[in-house]
Specification:
The complex is a heterotrimer of chains A (800), B (351) and C (220). Chain A is 63% helix and 12% strand. By secondary structure, chain A is of the alpha+beta class. Chain A has an eight-stranded mixed beta sheet with strand order 6-5-7-4-3-9-1-10, sandwiched between helices. In chain A, strands 13, 14, 15, 16, 17, 18 and 19 form a seven-stranded mixed beta sheet that branches. A four-stranded antiparallel beta sheet of chain A has the order 12-20-11-21. Classes of the chains: A alpha+beta (800), B mainly beta (351), C alpha/beta (220).
Amino acid sequence: MRKTAFLTLLSHWRRHPFQLVTLVLGLALATALWSGVQAINAEARASYDAAADAVGGSRPVIVAPTGDMDEAQYVTLRRAGWLVTPVVEGWMMTDQGRVRLVGIDPLTAPPDVAAAGVAVDGGLGAFLTAPGRILAAPATAARLSSGDLPPVTATEGLAPSLAFTDIGVAQRLLEKEGRLSRLIVLDTQPLNRPALSDIAPELEFRPSGGQADLARLTDSFHLNLAAFGLLSFAVGLFIVHGAIGLAFEQRRPVFRTLRALGLPARDLTWLLVVELLVLALLSGALGVALGYLIAAALLPDVAATLRGLYGAPVEGALTIRPAWWAAGMGIAVAGTAVAATGALWKIARLPVLAPARPRAWARASQSTLWLQLAAAAALVLVSLVSGLFGSGLVAGFLMLGALLIAAALTLPALLSGFLALAARTARSATAEWFWADTRQQLPGLSLALMALLLALSANIGVGTMVSSFRLTFTGWLDQRLASELYVSAETAEDAAALVAFVEPRVDAILPIWNVEAEIAGAPAEIYGVADHTTYRDNWPLLARLPDVWDRVAAGDAVLVNEQLARRDGLWPGTMLPVPGGPPMEVAGVYSDYGNPLAQVLIGIDALTTRFPDVERLNFGLRLDPAEKDALATALITEFGLPPENLVDQNALKGFSIEVFDRTFTVTGALNVLTLAVAGFAILTSLLTLASTRLPQLAPVWALGLTRADLARIELGRALMLASLTMVAAIPVGLVLAWVLLAVINVEAFGWRLPMHLFPRDWLVLGVLALLAAGLASLWPALRLSRTEPAVLLKVFTNER
Amino acid sequence: MKDKVYAAFLILLLTPATALSQGFAGMGQSADGFAMPDPETRFSFPADHGPHPDFRIEWWYLTANLTGDDGRDYGIQWTLFRSATASGDDTQSGWNSPQLWMGHAAVTTPDAHHSTERFARNGIGQAGVEASPFHAWIDEWSMQGPSLKNVNVTAQGTDFGYDLSFDAQGPFILQGEQGFSVKSEAGQASHYYSQPFYEVSGKLMLPDGEVSVTGSGWLDREWSSQPLTADQTGWDWVSLHFDDGAKLMGYRLRDASGGAYAVGTWIEPNGETFPFPNGVLQAEPLVITDVDGREVPTSWRVALPARGVDVEIHAVNPQSWMDTTVAYWEGPVRITGSHTGRGYLEMTGYD
Amino acid sequence: MLLSVTDLKKSYPGENGPVAVLDGVSLTLKPGETVALTGESGSGKSTLLHIVGGLEAADAGEVTIDGTAIATLDDRGRAALRRRDIGVVFQQFNLIPSLTVAANITFQARLAGVEYGHLRLENLVETLGLQDHLGKYPEQLSGGQQQRVAIARAILPGPKLLLADEPTGNLDETTADAVIDALLAQVRMAETAMLLVTHSDRLAARADRRLHLQHGRVTA
């Protein structure tokens, strides 16, 4: 009996293969977006962990609060009985971007430091003695091809994006001779040792390693992605809900027959559960595979963003992790369960001899609307409270999430109200019927429309954020890149000759000299700035003390960029330890969009005093823009400057914008995918409704409308609802953008941005939404226009 | 993980390029580029108490048989090994120096054996040896005094430590022919001298508390570039303090074919030395002890008929296994038979 | 003649080739005349009704309504014919669920652009006993009430031809009688020709004329 019943149930799919495809595809899409984002996050997190483990894991560290320490302090500690191992770290420039170089001492490194093990296995002598070896994971090794480095050994199992070498080699390559970044405290310590404060009072003991900071720093970024993944999944669930609803609705007669033939409701329910489970697993597997493709396609950009923004060690290669395979399947099954619960509930309580339910969606949905409104109001309250009293990223996202759900819940009531008003303006019978019928269909479509609202709001919000950012960024670039030409010399002698050559031809020569250093425990750039009106007039200061430029020129104050100021609370008036001399006062904060690193500006004299070895090779040239090309030609042909050492202001801006755009590739891609999923949700909802539509349409047809008329009306209805949803999405999207710009961005990237409006983008999005809705409704409409009259007539004569 | 890394470490610590298929701890390596022991060399103290970086390996090897104020027998070991990963000068400073240091320390009680080790890079001051005033150190462990005749010795691990003063009551002893100690028929050799006349006093820090101890100590100094032949698989070495004041150093280098090359030196209480050639010293295992799955002879019959010596030596603690990267058996022994006394036994190549 | 049907043929695809449902049916109907069409289930009476109403196309033969051959009309023309000249009452689901009773009643008239007069509407509603239900939705009405709404809707535009397909098929006898009374009263009052499909002899007996359909042909 059960087997026959099961086969009967399954035969439905053979007769409706498209429905099967819809269900499987919907579930697969939802799972794919979710698990794709999860895969990206898991990969990045695994990389952080590997990086942390790569140099001591969660062991305590000893650091110098001011930055690097003298290596003599390592010996002091060891000879006092502190079992520590030294690490020197820093950024190394290669042809293919920066790589974090980690110098270790394999003799004292803890045995779980993988690189130390590899060093030992692969020839300790070669590792320790000149020219040494560099060990790196294959993907990282591929980026380390350039010139004067020691031989590079690609090694599986090392932390990504890190290059390991002996501490002496690292000191040389990083130009940190005699310096150490930190000391890792080993697990076992001898019987007696003095207190750290007795032997090295200037050093600081930190209970666990510094890599946790990286996780904290990048948390916001991953939360961003996860929120997007969840949104996509939620939108995808609408599809599944629609597809399951359709399949159940259509098989109602079969269910009744099976029940009448003696199959208990329990058994029927269980058979359906088994069927759904099989489908969920199938779709889940497909979805995870799709998710892998999505992740693999997006990860290189994500990795580039993470490396660029946070210096996080992530490579673009994806590894398959069993954990997210399982998680993906789990979420597919859970999603199916959520989407199918309602339908199953009805089946379990299906009376054997109940009449078919020709009446469409209950008119009693009025009370549902009120409930939704009440819930929305409560959520708005939650949003307000977390916005006013919360702080940090989680509060920001709570605010955002509550707001979005509230908006989604409000939508049906809003649309219903609008339709009621519109119905009053109806003059013709057709119009009256159109509004009334649309309103009646609303409950069935509202889930899909909510999905569309979410997708559109997210699009508007994120789009506004990115575009505002971009606009601010380009405006800021114009201020920042004030020099007409940027030149660099190869050697100090070249630089002198270059200065002599351009001196009579330009208004000013502005040195652009910088060093890389650790400020407040993170990599930072220190730039020297000349005392010139170029800076006084153009530099985009967000906060300042009086006489800021005079004080910077005098060498007793610094400027810091916004991200450093926000991260460490370094606002004007606070003191900042700067390597190479006493701490300096922060005199101003400037915006520095798109820069991953903390940046400090000090007077050019202070820079050369504190860092006598700073390379003095780069200059900005101020001159009449009209003479720019002439000077560029002269520099190349007369002076003999290699063309690549000369950068035009415009080229530099172009490059900066390119870097910026790359950062938001992922956001854009997820935006488009989410919108596509929402479109698909509309399609499945319409298909589900289509089967219940006939009793509603047949009388209208019989009374004198053609099928083509009806199809046009159906199409128009979908377009109208999409338009209304789009209109509703604009304010929601703008609020979302504001939260992103004023709350999330500050937490995630460290800068706050002014908001700009881009109505033309809305128009484009609106057209896209109409296109999605139109495409989704076109097929059901076409089908309707070709329905056989006999099918319509059956409504009046037979039991369905 | 740890074992694998350390095992690999052992091999590579002591061998610049190739794997260890020859001899114990890589000592069978060819000595290309390193200085070779020369029978014509005559030591000059205190300079030769310091390191000889032209040679590949070198050690300062201190043992002591001690009696506690609780009446129990104790033994301690303090050793500093120097190893060069590449030949050449020692002029490269800082981390680039090819010289590495390894320290071993142990305390043996009748029922426990505590051991630990340290590693260090040369050239940064973490470990080293200075001849005069004498100072040998690695991390916080040290062996320091106005001269090597009079040193204070400290070391510690996670659960033990010691602080002892060593006071030499007799002269330094040159092993072999004027300190040129031949290790095989093929002529492999090292430079080798000892100080067997230390009177020792001080304290041991043990898990149960401190113990005041006194006793006698023995220092071995040896440096070479290739002290073993390729087929020699390990050695059994003893330093014996007889109660009548005489001392005996003897060792047996085992080869893969089951044979052995055994030599040593008889030392009169006044420091007069009588080295004896291969084949004179008799040594046969009496008791084989299971030490963590290894079969180690922890009691021996030792006979030197020319001196009327026919004794049995028994380990104070048969489980005196040095569970260090370079692992071996090292511990105090009691002597019975024709002579009585105490001494130290070291056995390598049993793991 | 208001309606003339000549040699109408219609077959549906079946398992063993086409099954002839109408096999040469001819009939005529004068204005104000009520003809009952009876016959077994599957005898083709509903199909005949659908073809006459322009809801389905015939395979062969001719249907002329007030001089217009409906075969010459396209989809749009047939729709116009339906809303202007024909009123239909089916066995069930006649009403548009999203509209109120009042809106349902006036729907076809407004669709056809027919001025019906407020008084006429009020009379009709009162006669059919619907005055208390105008603001309700179809699902809130009983089956008999729903059918009376359908009748009001069909009558209001003043069609030339009324087609009723088992209008009481889903109703109990008492209710059915009431509905048929109302229907006949309205038809007579409006001088409308009516084709009434029924399998009930009792109902058929109340028509002016009676035609029996068997195996796709008129037998009496």
